[in-house]
Specification:
This protein has one domain. It is built from six helices and two strands, in the order H-H-E-E-H-H-H-H. A two-stranded parallel ribbon has the order 1-2. The radius of gyration is 25 Å and the shape is flat. It starts with a helix and ends in a 9-residue tail after the last helix.
Length: about 190
C-alpha cells in the first residue's frame, strides 16, 4: 500500500513538472517568435497577415500560458504547499494545460475577427487587439461561453409570439399548477 501511494505521488509530481516544463518551452517559443518578428526575419513569412491578427494570436497564446503557469503555482502536491492556496494538484487537467496555448491562439484570432467586424472601415488598434487577446486568452472558457451566447441570439429560431393579453409568466404558472393528466388518456 505504501508503494502505491508513493507511485501516485510521483505521478502527480511528474505531471506538475511536465506542465511547468512545457509552459516554459512554449513561453520561450513565444519570446523567440516575437524577437525574430521584431528583427525582421519572420516578417516575409507572414507579410500577408495583418499585424493586429499576428499580435492577437501571439498575445492570446501568451495569456493562455500565463494562466497555465498560474495553475502550476496555485496548486501543490501533498506535502509541498510552499504557500500555495488552491489545494492539491491533480493530473486530471493535463490536457487542459497542454492545449491551453492553442486555445489561447484561437481566442486571439477570434478577438481580431470580432474587432475587425466592429471596425469595418479600418484596422483595429494593434495594442487594443493584443490586450484583449491576452486577457481573453487567459479566460478562454468565458470567451467561448460569450461567443456561444452571442451565437444563440444571432441564430435564434423564433418561437410562437406571446399573447399580448396574457401577463408575462402566466403561462408558466398555469403549466406548473395544471393537474397531472391521466396516462391512459381518461
Amino acid at each position: 500500500m505504501f508503494r502505491s501511494n508513493r507511485d501516485a505521488q510521483t505521478r502527480l509530481v511528474l505531471g506538475r513538472r511536465s506542465v511547468f516544463g512545457y509552459d516554459l518551452v512554449v513561453l520561450c517559443g513565444l519570446y523567440a517568435a516575437a524577437f525574430f518578428f521584431a528583427d525582421g526575419r519572420l516578417r516575409p513569412l507572414v507579410a500577408h497577415i495583418p499585424d493586429p491578427a499576428l499580435f492577437a494570436a501571439w498575445a492570446g497564446a501568451l495569456g493562455a500560458v500565463a494562466m497555465s503557469l498560474r495553475g502550476v503555482y496555485s496548486f501543490h502536491t501533498a506535502g509541498t504547499s510552499h504557500g500555495t492556496t488552491r489545494g492539491l494538484w491533480t493530473n486530471e487537467m493535463l490536457y487542459w494545460h497542454f492545449g491551453k496555448p492553442f486555445s489561447g491562439t484561437l481566442v486571439g484570432v477570434a478577438v481580431f475577427i470580432l474587432l475587425k467586424a466592429a471596425v469595418p472601415n479600418g484596422e483595429p488598434s494593434t495594442f487594443t487587439t493584443a490586450a484583449a487577446a491576452f486577457v481573453l486568452g487567459m479566460q478562454d472558457h468565458e470567451f467561448f461561453n460569450f461567443v456561444k451566447r452571442v451565437g444563440e441570439v444571432i441564430i435564434a429560431v423564433p418561437g410562437p409570439k406571446p399573447d399580448k393579453n396574457v401577463p408575462p409568466g402566466a403561462h408558466d404558472a398555469a403549466v406548473k399548477t395544471a393537474p397531472p393528466s391521466d396516462p391512459a388518456g381518461r
